[in-house]
Amino acid sequence: MTDIEIRDFEIESAGADDLLGYHRIVAASQQVDLPDDPPLTYENLVGRLRNPFTGFGPLRHWTAHRGGEMAGVANMYFPEVENSHLVIANVRVHPQSRGQGIGSTLARAIVPAIRADGRRLVECWQVPKGGTGDSWATRLGFETVHETVQQVLLIAEADTSLWEVAAPTGYRLERWIGAAPDALVASYVQAREAIHDSPLGQSSMSNPQWTVDRMRAAEAERRRLDVESRTVVAVHEATGTVAGLTELEVQPHQPTWAFQRDTAVLAAHRGHGLGRWIKAHMARWLLADRPDLERFWTTTGAVNTHMIRVNHQLGFTTTRSAIVLTQSVATLAARLEAQP
Predict the structure, then answer these.
(1) Any idea which UniProt keywords this protein has (predicted)?
(2) Concatenated DSSP letters for 317-339?
(3) Can you tell me the distance from the alpha carbon of 283 to that of 117, in angstroms, rounded to the nearest whole number?
(4) Does the 152-319 domain belong in CATH 3.40.630.30?
(5) Which candidate, 226, 224, 256, 231, places its Cα nearest to that of 246?
(6) CATH 3.40.630.30 residue spans of the chain
(7) What are the pLDDT digits (tens) for 64-103?
């Protein structure tokens, strides 16, 4: 498509027109592809661009223009360390411009950046199951390797009595905002290894191998981005070790939404209700500090029926299914070049 121009998009230097164009595409796409989600405001979109999720490596953006107007956007995370073999890509085209080769032109333009960084695989996450993005990626040869569900708890509709969960015998709570206390950080890092039991299907993404130094670096990155990170852990009284953990983030551009991140319980301590207990405490704690909170939201592997059930017991509802798609860079490039 020779009339489509692809440009690098730098959030630090982007002007108002480019930011408005980016918002127009993402907001219109969300309205069509995710109609049950609240409308995406301009301020929220710009906040997302300036404060991307931590833990996934550097984020780059590209835009597609036709006739002087932005018609599509693409971004890619470049994970590091264990996941330096892959990128996490997202391509969006304005609904009025779909079916015109813009998405494929964007994908074709970013393949050199993937290859230049030595990546072998492309993964697309949180693609609505059965939607336009699913169909487009499948035509390019992507395969579904994992399925997730999104779960949401709306505070206005919440039954907060569900958060009154008794402490399991033999455990106590510890909690913090920001950095883990020195006395617990080593045990906390060791407990995070339990997250490796969380199902990721056949995704090539690996959970991090945590160390104290790596944890301190992650904490520092969240502070730099002004992300409020809260952690609640269950400590086994007899040994003083962390037996379970749950983590939550509040982004500075969206202070009334809380994103529930990892929750994990060590295998030796499962069956005592620790996950529900610490998540319930997290909800009470956050709402006490933030009475204007509107919602909690989280994503969970579709086969992780235990955690889905725990979330339901706390008042979450499942709002949609999404998939993870994967493709080798070599095959993707060949498929794109074969297109007319």
Answers:
(1) Acyltransferase, Transferase
(2) EEEEEEEEEEEEHHHHHHHHHH-
(3) 41
(4) yes
(5) 231
(6) 4-119, 152-319
(7) 999 989 999 999 999 999 999 999 999 999 999 999 999 9
